[in-house]
Amino acid sequence: MFPMLEMLTGEKPQICSRISGEEYTALLGNMQGMCNFNFAEILTDITTAEFALMYHAAIKNKTDNEMLTVAQAASILQVTVPAISRTLKNLEKKEYLSRITNQNDRRSVYISITAKGLEVLINNLHRFEGLMTRILSSFSDEE
């Protein structure tokens, strides 16, 4: 990223004036590693798509005290409604999410996270937090 900026502007990025060439190279290597990070490798019992859907269903319920609709989920995750429906079907089989049809408008379907699903989501968030803690522990307070 920084070499691209330097190549396009002819100017060294500001960060380069604060760190040595070796530190700059190490920073680029670490950034590349983070870009190649495969979130799916730390998840247990769910896929990345399932995690995202469960996360947004839980957040919508917690922050807005509302349930996420299938259409909202598709918009947030930038996928089609059929893609959300397939993921939701898998999560219903695992008993992590459930579908609730709006009785006033049967075209509107809500997504509700179950207690079991919330437990799986929280466990995976803790796994991710642990990984980030291990990664960040290699940096000093100044870094």
Protein described:
The chain has 143 residues and is mostly helical. The chain is built from six helices and three strands. The chain has a three-stranded antiparallel β-sheet with strand order 1-3-2. Helix 3 crosses helix 6 and helix 4 (70-77) packs across helix 5. The longest helix is centred in the C-terminal third of the chain and has 22 residues, at 115-136.
Task: Provide tags for this entry.
three-stranded antiparallel β-sheet, 58% helix, 143 residues, elongated, mainly alpha
Characterize this entry briefly:
It contains 6 helices and 3 strands. It is mostly helical. A hairpin with a 7-residue loop joins strand 2 (97-101) and strand 3.
Which structural class fits the helix and strand makeup?
mainly alpha
Instruction: Count the beta strands.
Output: 3
Distance between the termini: 19 Å
Strands ordered across the widest β-sheet: 1-3-2
Set out the fold topology.
Elements: H1 2-9, H2 21-35, H3 48-64, E1 68-69, H4 70-77, H5 81-93, E2 97-101, E3 109-113, H6 115-136
Helix pairs in contact: 3-6, 4-5
